[in-house]
Amino acid sequence: MPLQGPTTGLEQRRDQANAQRIREYYAWGQQIRAIRQREHVPIGAAIARLGRSESRFTGYKALKFAEWRREDLAYVVANGREGRPLSWSHVIVLVSVERAPERRRLMRQAVRRGWSAARLRAEIRPGENRRPNSGRRFQGLERPEDIFRALAGYLQRPRRFLTRVMECETLRLSDVERQSVTRLQRAIERFCSTTR
Fold first, then answer.
1. Which of 45, 96, 104, 118 could form a cystine bridge with 41, CB 3.0-4.6 A?
2. Following CA atoms 75, 92, 131, 33 in sequence, which dihedral angle do they give, to the nearest 10 degrees?
3. Residues 74 and 166 placed together within one structural domain of the fold
């Protein structure tokens, strides 16, 4: 049975504060995205430029949340007109759902049924509708060549990052640091070229 909307002034103020917090994270995610697009910096650097003390994890979730449609944001902050209002913890769980229609379905169910963030997380089946993470990246791979191919794919991001480090003019690397980065780049290159 769905929970009723707020009945006391205290509950209404709590829900308004919650909605404001969610709007702030959405706006923060948009700011992170703008800085990253403009300056081509990692999430941590964008957070630092904004003077926020939140973790990279929270910044990443805010960035992914900012990719949602404004209608989805409006639904999240609807303050429980249909049931229990969603919190930032709910949003963090929903951000992991890749497909927007599935995410919206889960969002509506969570509101109507009054699910906690933990219950919502339990409703998202492992491996379905979720972004792959490092813990699941190698599940289902049994042959060594498949594992090495997946690992080579996983190493593409650090490889691109190391290239950016070497090309960065404002970062003054010592000769020893530059040699270490170059060795690491070559090792990744060698590994990736042998697994093709």
1. 45
2. 80
3. no
pLDDT tens digits, one per residue of 63-99? 899 999 888 888 888 755 556 678 889 999 999 898 8
Predicted pLDDT of residue 165: 80
Tokens 């780049």 sit on residue: 185
Distance of CA 59 to the CA centre of its chain: 8
Burial class (CB in 10 A: 0-12, 13-18, 19+), 118: exposed
- Is residue 16 within 8 Å of residue 87, measured between CB atoms? no
For the cut 70, the answer to whether the pLDDT of residue 56 exceeds it is: yes
Question: Of 112, 107, 139, 142, which Cα lies nearest the Cα of 126?
Answer: 139
155 found inside a domain: yes
150 and 73 assigned to the same domain: no
Instruction: Report the predicted TM-score, pTM, of the whole model to 2 decimal places.
Output: 0.58
110 with 29: CB under 8 angstroms? no
Report the 10 Å Cβ neighbour count for 70.
8
Once rounded to an integer, what is the mean pLDDT over residues 49-76? 86
130 within domain boundaries: no
